[in-house]
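Researcher: Structure for this, please.
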Amino acid sequence: MLTNFLLIMSLSGSVILLLYLLVSPIAKRYFSLAWRYRILKIALAFYLIPFPAVLPEIRDSIFGFCPLAVDLLSRPVSLMNTSYAIYADGGSLYVSSGLEKMLIFILGMGVLSFAVISWYALRYWKMRKICLNYSDIPVGQKQQDIFHSIKNELDIRRNVKLLCSEYCKVPITMGICSPTVIIPPWNRDEVDQDLYHDVLKHELVHIKHRDVLIRFLGIAAIAVHWFNPFTYILYNEILNISEIYCDSIVLRGKEEQERKAYGELLLKLAVQKSMASNEFAVGILGGNSKRAFKRRIVEMKTVRKNKRILSALITALISLMGGLTVCAYDPPVNITDHGPVYAEQGFDFQFTVGELKLEVEELPYEQFFVDDAGNVYEIKGDSNDTRAACKHKYVAGTTTSHSKNSSGGCTVTVYEAQRCLLCGYIKKGDKINLITYEKCLH
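Model: Predicted structure, token format:
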């Protein structure tokens, strides 16, 4: 049984990323770049949002809106798994050996994650200080007019600063709450007016899509799931797709000659040494590897047939598979010890601090069936009618029924029984045990 929700988060994000990679050949031809970027964001969300921890609340909300979903989403509860347990007797706290090892593992991962995050944070503040300190060249009025014109075109209402620095050889964008575009001191011989417009638009599209924030979240996923190689693949794919997506918006409606000039500008900037590839800034270069540039140039020439219905269905399927993976998480079960009178049905726990006999009786329902594997199924009073058309396939177990009497006590009766795996019909056998309590504590 998987009890570590962090591993479930890592698994669910990886499932979505794998499905994305599997459908990539189809996506390149028939799905938009916005779709591909959206799926990567969904994978990132599954890596970072603790869906397994809030799974019980999500189930309860679904049950409240749709009571019919109880039978579909409820799973049999096992009362016999004590590998991961904590027992508190008021003055002492006992931890099972399995849980102790898991907590040590989580603590070790937490320390390493904190170290990775601290290292990246230090690099960010160092880069930010350098960029802002060396961005002291005045920006011309014409450049500012072009900049504000593009902002209005993209409907960007946030306060975005435009700075100029000799330190940056190519344009970059940094900052989440207060985004800043930093450009080099270009002259007309280096880039013409149209390409200058395209470069600024590329950076502002990054701001509109909040790509700096997405990159920060990608780094956070790596810091938390450093042991999972798929997080590094996800981060690299987010880096590439965000740049390709920006290119597609900049080149929308452009002629072949304009596209060629834009591609030549990218190759020209690629030879410049700059901070454009830093983890905390997005720039027109993005990932400056040869493979990344080749992919961007190829994507510029690709003509896609946008299949919206098919892309919507694939999105739903990928999200569903990620959600089903989250459902593999089993939330912890609280068990109350009612005293020594229940010693006959106690569970043995192995603890790292001594040994303890935990004496407990848990009655999850008034009537229930327990199979030989320890799975528990509720028996409702009106749901045990046999179905004539069913070819019964039985599993052995026991049934337990609990009933209260007028004096305040209760009776617990246990029978040998069989349960049909197909229709849920319970066939009772011989009585095994009958216990009467003068005071009901259930």
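Researcher: Any notable elements?
Model: The chain has twelve helices and 14 strands. Confidence is low (pLDDT under 50) at residues 336-360.
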